[in-house]
Amino acid sequence: MTARETHALAERIAAIPKLDPAAPALEFDGRWHSWGALDATLASVASLVPEPGAQVGILLRDRPAHVGALLGVLRAGGCAVTINPHRGLVRTREDIAALRLGILIGDEADLRELVVATGVRTHVE
Distance (Å, rounded) from C-alpha 123 to C-alpha 48? Predict the structure, then answer.
């Protein structure tokens, strides 16, 4: 996919939050997060994807920022590689090392605890 070509899914992910940015999109822990807030995360994460098809690891948790991270990678045409941080410290570190990802997205605590490789760009949500 070139810069001029876009995938239908990426187009939809980019368009939907703009329909009504103030509308509630996700409810988490008793609080609603708007499409506009979700779109800000989407744009931030999408800007990290260097090229279509690039693999981006996500230490995926049940949180709104992580939903935004996943959709942001897809919006940019990237390949989201989800990693379950609940597999335990050793197994998750082994998974991360074996994947050899250039970009890894996660919350600050997960990144601090699980990422031991150098040269990996990380993004804190």
Answer: 9
Taking the C-alpha atoms of 6, 7, 13 and 14 in order, what is their torsion angle to the nearest 10 degrees? 10
- 116 DSSP assignment: -
Cα-Cα-Cα-Cα dihedral sign, residues 12, 28, 68, 104: negative
Rounded Cα gap, residues 22 and 37, in angstroms? 8
- pTM confidence score: 0.86
Counting Cα atoms < 13 Å in the Cβ hemisphere of 68 gives 25
For residue 80, give both structure tokens: 């989201």
- Reading the chain (125 residues) residue by residue, the pLDDT tens digits are 444 456 888 999 999 999 999 999 999 999 999 999 999 999 999 999 999 999 999 999 999 999 999 999 999 999 999 999 999 999 999 999 899 998 999 988 898 888 876 566 666 55
Q: Within 10 Å of residue 82's Cβ, how many Cβ atoms? A: 13
